[in-house]
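Please fill in the sequence for the structure shown.

STRUCTURE ENCODING:
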C-alpha cells in the first residue's frame, strides 16, 4: 500500500465543459485516515494541494478536471513537484469504477460523489490505475534579458553591454550547475548560445531529465529572466503505477573501443548483455540508467580501469573487482549459461556474475530475515552500501513512511568587531561604493527621461494614425467576424443533422427487424434467442444482468472458443434449453455440456437484431432431437467402453491368477 498523502477527487456538480464553474467532492487519505470535503471549487483544491503536496491525485476520469488536453496541461503545471495525476480506471482501455471497487472488496454507491472520491484514493493507495503523463522526460531552460533594450540613446551600447553581460554570467552559472548535475546523475544536456554585444542575447539548455529532477528554478531580476519548462508530449501517455520505480542492478563493464555491458537484477536475472563499438561515456550511462539504478559497477580485471571508475562515479555506486586475474576458462564457465557473442560480452558478463555470486549468501540471509512486505531490493542495496541487515531493514521500514523534516533556521552570522579605525575604513569604502552607484543611477535616470520624452512623441503620432485606421476597418472586421461565427454554426448544425439522420436510419432498420422477430414470435414461427458475445464468465454475467437467463432459454454464443467446463457450468446452472454456435467449441466444454444433457447445436439458422435473435421452433426441435439421438448413441458407446474396460481388467486378473 502506498504511504503518504493521496487526494481522491470526483465531480459533484456541473461539468468541466460547462460555463458554470464545477464543484468537486474531495477525499484526503492520510496515515490510514480519510477526510472528506464537499462542493469544493478547483481553485480551493489547488491551494489544498500546494499545502499538503500529496503523492497522488486520483480520479476516475481526468477530463472531469479539465475539458481538453490544453487545459489539462495548464492544470498540471500548477501542481506541486512530485505530485502525480492518476486515473484509477486505467488508460486507453478503462474499467468501470464500480467493477474495480468490487474486485478489491470495496463497497461503493456510484451515485455518491464522496464515496467515489474515497474509492479513487483507496485504489490509488493499492497501486491500481495509471499515471497520466503529458510531458516528456526533457526540460528546456531559457536565459534571456528581462526587458527590452529600447530604441537607444547616447549610452545605448553601454546599457546593451551590461544586460548581455548579465545574461552571459547567469548562463555560465546555470551551465556549471548542469555540468555537476550531469556528472552526478548521468543525465545529459545540450546547450545553445546566441552571442550579442558584450555577452549573450540568450542561452538555451535542453536537459534529458524530468523537470522536478533538474536543479534549476525559474527566476527574474532587473536584467535577466530564467524560464524552465517541460516538453509537452504529442498525445497523453499512461504509465502503470505497479511498474513505477527503478530497480537496483549489478552492472558489469568491459571498457575499450568496443564496450561490453552486462546488467543483472539483484535476483540474478539477466536484463542486458550487449557490446557496442565507439559508444561515448554519456551514451553508456544513459543506456545503463534505462534498466535501473546500479548498486554495483564491476569489472573483471584488477585494478579497476579509469573508464569503469568514471561510470561508477556517475551513479555513486559501489565498485567491485576480482582482486586478481580471472582465467579465460573460468570466464567461459561463468558466462556460458547466459550466452554471449564475443569476448567483450563474455568479460562484462563475467564481472556481473562474479559480483552477484560474491553477494549471493548475504542476499539469501536478507530474504530469510526481512519481512515480506518490505522492498527486498532496497534492503539489499543498503547492505551493499555497508549497512548491517538489521540497519538496512530499519532504514527501508522508515523510508516507507512519510516523514516531515523541518530544516533548521540558519543561525545569524556574527560579525567580529574590529577596532575603530578598521570600522571607519570599512564604512568609508561602503560610502564610496554607494556614491558611485548613486552617480551611475542618476546617469541612468537622465537616459531614461530622454528616451521617455522621445517615446511620448512617437506614441502620440502612432495613436493618431491608429484612430484613423480603426475607424475605417472597424465595420469591416465586425461584419467578417459575424459571418465567420454564422458559417461555423451552420457547419456544426449540418454535421449534427447528418449524424442524427444516420442514427435515425439505423434505428428504423433495427425496429423493422425487431418487429419481424416479434411477429414470428406471436405467430409461433420464432422462438426468442439471447445473444452472448463471448464464452466467458464476464460476458455471461453481463447478459444475465441485462436480459436475464432463466430455465428453458435458448442462448447463442457468438464466440464459443474462449471457455471451458467451469464457464459451461454457468449456463448449466441456469438450465438453458439449448446452446447455439457457429464455430467449434473447445472439447472440454463440449464434454461438459454433454454430461449435463444440454444440447449444443451448430449452424442453426437464426435471425439477429443486436443482442436479440429468434429461431424457428420446428428447426430447433428437430435439431434437439437429432442431438439427443447422438447423445444417446454416445452414452451407449461410453457405457460399452466402460463395460469392455471392466471385462478386460477382469480377464487380466483371472489370467494372473491362473499363472
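FILLED IN BY: designer on duty
SEQUENCE:
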Amino acid at each position: 500500500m502506498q504511504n503518504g498523502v493521496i487526494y481522491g477527487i470526483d465531480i459533484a456538480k456541473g461539468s468541466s465543459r460547462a460555463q458554470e464553474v464545477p464543484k468537486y467532492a474531495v477525499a484526503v487519505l492520510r496515515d490510514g485516515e480519510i477526510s472528506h470535503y464537499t462542493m469544493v471549487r478547483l481553485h480551493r483544491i489547488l491551494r489544498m494541494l500546494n499545502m499538503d503536496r500529496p503523492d497522488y491525485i486520483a480520479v476516475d476520469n481526468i477530463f472531469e478536471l479539465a475539458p481538453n488536453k490544453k487545459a489539462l496541461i495548464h492544470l498540471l503545471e500548477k501542481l506541486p513537484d512530485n505530485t502525480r495525476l492518476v486515473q484509477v480506471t486505467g488508460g486507453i482501455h478503462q474499467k468501470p469504477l464500480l467493477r474495480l471497487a468490487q474486485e478489491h472488496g470495496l463497497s461503493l454507491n456510484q451515485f455518491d460523489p464522496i464515496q467515489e472520491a474515497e474509492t479513487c484514493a483507496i485504489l490509488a493507495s493499492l497501486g491500481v490505475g495509471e499515471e497520466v503523463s503529458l510531458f516528456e522526460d526533457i526540460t528546456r531552460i531559457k536565459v534571456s534579458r528581462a526587458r527590452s533594450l529600447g530604441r537607444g540613446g547616447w549610452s545605448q551600447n553601454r546599457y546593451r553591454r551590461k544586460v548581455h553581460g548579465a545574461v552571459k554570467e547567469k548562463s555560465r552559472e546555470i551551465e556549471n550547475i548542469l555540468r555537476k548535475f550531469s556528472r552526478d546523475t548521468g543525465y545529459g544536456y545540450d546547450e545553445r548560445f546566441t552571442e550579442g554585444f558584450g555577452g549573450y542575447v540568450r542561452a538555451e539548455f535542453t536537459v534529458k531529465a524530468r523537470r522536478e529532477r533538474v536543479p534549476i528554478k525559474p527566476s527574474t531580476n532587473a536584467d535577466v529572466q530564467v524560464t524552465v519548462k517541460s516538453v509537452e508530449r504529442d498525445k497523453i501517455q499512461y504509465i502503470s503505477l505497479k511498474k513505477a520505480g527503478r530497480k537496483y542492478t549489478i552492472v558489469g563493464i568491459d571498457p575499450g573501443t568496443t564496450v561490453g555491458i552486462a546488467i543483472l537484477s539483484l535476483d540474478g536475472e539477466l536484463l542486458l548483455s550487449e557490446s557496442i563499438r565507439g559508444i561515448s561515456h554519456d551514451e553508456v550511462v544513459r543506456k545503463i540508467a534505462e534498466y535501473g539504478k546500479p548498486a554495483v559497477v564491476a569489472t573483471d580485471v584488477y585494478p579497476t580501469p579509469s573508464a569503469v571508475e568514471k561510470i561508477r562515479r556517475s551513479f555513486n555506486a559501489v565498485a567491485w573487482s576480482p582482486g586478481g586475474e580471472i582465467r579465460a576458462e573460468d570466464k567461459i564457465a561463468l558466462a556460458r549459461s547466459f550466452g554471449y557473442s564475443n569476448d567483450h560480452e563474455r568479460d562484462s558478463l563475467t564481472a556481473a556474475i562474479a559480483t552477484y555470486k560474491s553477494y549471493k549468501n548475504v542476499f539469501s540471509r536478507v530474504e530469510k530475515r526481512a519481512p515480506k512486505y518490505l522492498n527486498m531490493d532496497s534492503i539489499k542495496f543498503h547492505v551493499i552500501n555497508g549497512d548491517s541487515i538489521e540497519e538496512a531493514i530499519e532504514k527501508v521500514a522508515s523510508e516507507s513512511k512519510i516523514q516531515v523534516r523541518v530544516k533548521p533556521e540558519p543561525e545569524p552570522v556574527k560579525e567580529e568587531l574590529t577596532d575603530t579605525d578598521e570600522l571607519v575604513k570599512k564604512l568609508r569604502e561602503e560610502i564610496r561604493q554607494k556614491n558611485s552607484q548613486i552617480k551611475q543611477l542618476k546617469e541612468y535616470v537622465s537616459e531614461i527621461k530622454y528616451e521617455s520624452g522621445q517615446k511620448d512623441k512617437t506614441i502620440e503620432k502612432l495613436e493618431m494614425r491608429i484612430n484613423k485606421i480603426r475607424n475605417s476597418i472597424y465595420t469591416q472586421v465586425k461584419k467578417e467576424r459575424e459571418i465567420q461565427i454564422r458559417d461555423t454554426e451552420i457547419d456544426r448544425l449540418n454535421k449534427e443533422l447528418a449524424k442524427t439522420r444516420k442514427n435515425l436510419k439505423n434505428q428504423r432498420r433495427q425496429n423493422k427487424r425487431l418487429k419481424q422477430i416479434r411477429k414470428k414470435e406471436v405467430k409461433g414461427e420464432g422462438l426468442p434467442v439471447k445473444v452472448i458475445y463471448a464464452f466467458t464468465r464476464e460476458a455471461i454475467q453481463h447478459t444475465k444482468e441485462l436480459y436475464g437467463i432463466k430455465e428453458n432459454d435458448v442462448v447463442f454464443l457468438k464466440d464459443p472458443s474462449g471457455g471451458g467446463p467451469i464457464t459451461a457450468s454457468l449456463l448449466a446452472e441456469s438450465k438453458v434449453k439449448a446452446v447455439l454456435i457457429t464455430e467449434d467449441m473447445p472439447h472440454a466444454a463440449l464434454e461438459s455440456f454433454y454430461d449435463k444433457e444440454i444440447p449444443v447445436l451448430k449452424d442453426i439458422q437464426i435471425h439477429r437484431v443486436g443482442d436479440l435473435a429468434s429461431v424457428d421452433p420446428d428447426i430447433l426441435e428437430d435439431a434437439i432431437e437429432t442431438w439427443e439421438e447422438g447423445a444417446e448413441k454416445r452414452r451407449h458407446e461410453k457405457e460399452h467402453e466402460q463395460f469392455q474396460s471392466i471385462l478386460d481388467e477382469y480377464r487380466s486378473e483371472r489370467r494372473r491368477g491362473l499363472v
